[in-house]
Amino acid sequence: MRAYKLVKNGKSTEAFQVEEKPTPEPGAGEVLIQSEGFGLNFADVMARLGIYKDCPPLPTVIGYENVGHIKALGEGVEGLKEGQRVLAFTRFGGYADHILTPAMGVTPIPEDLSVGEATALATQYMTAYYAVEECLNLHEGDYALVHAAAGGVGTALIQILKNKGVTIFGTAGSPQKLNYLKDLGVDYPINYREKDYLEEIKKLGFERKIDATFNPIGGDYVKKDYALLNAGGAVVIFGASKMTEARGNPFKMIKLLFGFGFWSPIKFVTSSKSLIGLNMLRIADFKPTTFQRCLKGVVSLVEKGIIKPTVGKEFDHTQLADAHTYLESRKSIGKVAVKW
Ligand SMILES: NC(=O)c1ccc[n+]([C@@H]2O[C@H](COP(=O)([O-])OP(=O)(O)OC[C@H]3O[C@@H](n4cnc5c(N)ncnc54)[C@H](OP(=O)(O)O)[C@@H]3O)[C@@H](O)[C@H]2O)c1
């Protein structure tokens, strides 16, 4: 089998090396899958840059999700069969043409989903689904703010929130992305490079009216989001993309950390607002039943035609470095995937 190893932090052109090794046999409870391709996530870019805490020490194979056909089943695996087309979660190890993974993270998927569509449903749609359905309780007529709204998780959040009848403010950094957000049905698309989103939302008359914000950016965006919340509202923090800008500059990094603010529980009580942290790796590790429920929920929304991933670009595996550069460039819309 072949796998792309992350051997060096830094530029995508120098970061990966292909490695050949024997294909493993599945152990008890495991599934061996012959891969058609794997998805990229922004966390992969952060891992390559050396700013992702959960990344194993180098050299290592990263990658959270894979699509392919089952080649062999380990002892005791039920409900799956050889030859079946499946989507599989990988806790790293995803940049490979064969993957071995516990059966719990494997689900059958239709033959007609492309590699990009199928892999988008894994980390990105699962994160969005968990954030909306498990962290919060939003209703028709509520207001939500989605950052990085044109990205993978952003697209998923918008589709799931639209289905609930929530009015959406979405931020992105280019006119093309704003057009995309309008097409997706975002009620108030905001180009944060042209306008301060906090001021813009206030100007639109929604100061202290937002019920939820979805924030993978971090730094001062957390305080700004909190200022927009209505009573009962919450900021869901699930990333710190701003770290890519501060990387290698200790002063910027300290500014970023201070930007998050210092929070007292008393403030949450008196204002009746909250901050919710989210890391899907921890949910997969410690809440397997919740994880399974979310997976069923995502698959059910696809089957009903309520969600449909947008594929920004699919690359050949020989262009892995280009795929990484593209996602890092902040130009991508929807999912970026790599095919074998
Ligand atoms: N906690 C979890 O379990 C979990 C799971 C999945 C993803 N995430 C996080 O969710 C975020 C989105 O992930 P994704 O894979 O769907 O990526 P993505 O949104 O498809 O791509 C990243 C996008 O973020 C936007 N962005 C805004 N400010 C940025 C900044 N300062 N630096 C870099 N990008 C910035 C860029 O678009 P614009 O600039 O145009 O907005 C960029 O295109 C990432 O922060 C990721 O780490 C967390």
Instruction: Please identify, by name, the CATH architecture of the largest domain.
Output: 3-Layer(aba) Sandwich
Order of helices and strands: EHEEHEEEEHHEHEHEHEHEHHHEHHEHE
The bound ligands are: NADP nicotinamide-adenine-dinucleotide phosphate
Helicity range: 25-40%
Class by helix and strand content? alpha/beta
Low-confidence stretches: none
Secondary structure blueprint with pairings:
Elements: E1 2-6, H1 12-15, E2 16-20, E3 30-40, H2 42-49, E4 65-73, E5 85-89, E6 98-102, E7 106-108, H3 115-120, H4 123-134, E8 143-146, H5 152-163, E9 167-172, H6 175-184, E10 188-191, H7 197-203, E11 210-215, H8 220-228, E12 229-237, H9 243-246, H10 250-259, H11 265-271, E13 274-277, H12 280-286, H13 288-303, E14 311-316, H14 320-328, E15 335-339
Parallel strand pairs: 8-9, 8-11, 9-10, 11-12, 12-13, 14-15
Antiparallel strand pairs: 1-2, 3-4, 3-6, 3-15, 4-5, 5-7
Helix pairs in contact: 4-5, 4-13
Bound molecules: NADP nicotinamide-adenine-dinucleotide phosphate.
